[in-house]
Amino acid sequence: MTKPKMIVLDLDGTTLNNSKIIDPTLAEYIQKLRRDGVLVCIATGRTIYEMDYALPREFEVDGIINSNGMSVRFGGKEVSRHSIHPKTVEKLISTSIERGIHHEIHHHDGHTSAKISPLRERANELTGHGYFQPIWTDEIETAEVEKILFFKSDIEAIAHWMVELTELEKDYSFNAAISSPDLIDISGKFITKATGANEILDRVGLEFFDIIAFGDGGNDLPLFKKAGRSVAMQNSPDWVKSQATEVTDFSNNENGLLIHLQSIYGQ
Predict the structure, then answer these.
(1) pLDDT in tens, 161-182
(2) Order of strands across the sheet that contains 77-81
């Protein structure tokens, strides 16, 4: 079987272990693949600023797809940027507060905001994803929004909110994806990891067939559907595994990505 010319890696639950760091052996192996001529790209729900907390400074890749395609970098330069429409931001945040769903608004300049509401005083309820030092504002900040996160430890409430978001998608310009049972990512309409990957492919003269994509969540599925090979992590939910062409033998906390890559590209 021909070895894929380009690897696209999700971060959380895939490249990062449960401590949210990359294993040094995996990091070095990925750098070796790049030296051997394989293109390596990151495709993550994180912004470029959030990535800084997870990856060592010496870890280099060829391309970065941030916020599920809302910002794309290649060769160290930003090649595209998208923002969520202000009216969409206003509607989603207002409705989420009414439903008791926590939110964070991530802006292209790197700052994070959240509208002041009674939910602010209930942050102690969160056992999974939580607030990351947002600027609390009286009004909803709608300018230059790169992504929105909705989260709550009540998984059933998140599932119900996702159903409502699916209905709101019919009238507002956005895309919702479940990243984990307690977390929903919001990006721009028709913007996904797949559209971000396509922008990089155009620049290097490759096709989706040349990609092997690794991931563990719902935001990886648009790319899974396009890539020549798609690999779900062993720690992925079954509904993600069922839409991949392959599944790793080990989880992200057992170096499952490294072992699978070595099975394809060798030691």
Answers:
(1) 999 999 999 999 999 999 888 9
(2) 77-81, 71-74, 63-66, 39-43, 6-9, 211-215, 229-232, 246-247
